[in-house]
Amino acid sequence: MQLVINTYGSYLHVKQKSFEIKTEEDKKRVSAKKVSSILITTGAAISTDAVKLALENNIEIQFLDEFGCSLGKVWHPKLGSTTYIRRKQLELAESEEGTELVKEFMLDKIDNMINHLHDLAIKRSKSKEKYINKKIKEICELRNKLEKVTGYIEDVRNTIMGYEGNISRKYFASLSFLLPDRYKFNGRSFRPAEDEFNCLLNYGYGVLYGKVEKALIIAGLDPYVGILHTDGYNKKSFVFDFIEPYRHHIDRVVMKLFSRKKIRKLHFDKIQGGLTLNDEGKKLLLTELNDYFDKKIRYKGREIKINNTIQYDCHSLANRIIEEG
């Protein structure tokens, strides 16, 4: 489970070899064996004993800002990459094999988008179903064009990103079309989000970035050596590459919150240029995300928690890089 500290003034410490979270109103004790990561989203105190217990049990401690983006992490120093895998990553970034790899990420992402839209269309009215099916057809046509792209990544980067951007616009237009009128949005907006849907989506993606970065490092892959996304100072380019097939998980959770009418205007605060998710909104989203990622699914021939699919794929990629070398 992911332990989320989202109450201002909380205190995380150790009692009887377990984590204990104290707030003004409550106490909660959790065995370290049940915790996979600790997420701290607001003003809280954490004891050195709690940090030590987390490190001893290979539990990541992650601090998030108000937009859900990682401010920093504490994790075991033995996690890391082999030099060989990092060298192979660098070679991929300058080869046609690298192009094929990022195309795999993108095609998986698009397939997951299509499946999500199919799922959303099933119980909708005939007119809405017709609209969604039209968008799916358009997305499939662009997917087929993307699949045919070949060449070195430097030569085809803009082409790949152009197809992906066009597909994403059609996908998010479809999601907006299915929302209640008061929550419809006009495309993606980032920090700050201009609407409630993007506000939730951005925060959820921030949490997902943390999951992907951790999984890459555990598998020995370098989060900074990107292929499609170019390198830059302190830029986790490979996280941006690798995250693409998993974004639909966040999309599904956010859409479900709206379809079940759990979203309220009171979950958001107005700030200059847009909206931010307040503590109540974060609590709602993080609870839903934790429940969702803790579910087991049939994935590539095995029963596995959704949360563990990312780590499974990271290890598979690392092994593939080693074997191909």
UniProtKB/TrEMBL annotation:
One of its GO terms (biological process) is defense response to virus. Keywords: Antiviral defense, DNA-binding, Endonuclease, Hydrolase, Magnesium, Manganese, Metal-binding, Nuclease. Mn(2+) binds at residues 164, 229, 244. GO terms for molecular function: DNA binding; endonuclease activity; hydrolase activity; metal ion binding. Signal peptide: none annotated. It comes from the Bacteria. Its EC number is 3.1.-.-. The keyword Manganese applies. InterPro entries: Cas1, CRISPR-assoc_Cas1, CRISPR-assoc_Cas1_C, CRISPR-assoc_Cas1_N. The keyword DNA-binding applies. CRISPR (clustered regularly interspaced short palindromic repeat), is an adaptive immune system that provides protection against mobile genetic elements (viruses, transposable elements and conjugative plasmids). CRISPR clusters contain spacers, sequences complementary to antecedent mobile elements, and target invading nucleic acids. CRISPR clusters are transcribed and processed into CRISPR RNA (crRNA). Acts as a dsDNA endonuclease. Involved in the integration of spacer DNA into the CRISPR cassette. Belongs to the CRISPR-associated endonuclease Cas1 family. Homodimer, forms a heterotetramer with a Cas2 homodimer. HAMAP family: Cas1. This is CRISPR-associated endonuclease Cas1. It comes from Halothermothrix orenii (strain H 168 / OCM 544 / DSM 9562). The gene is cas1.
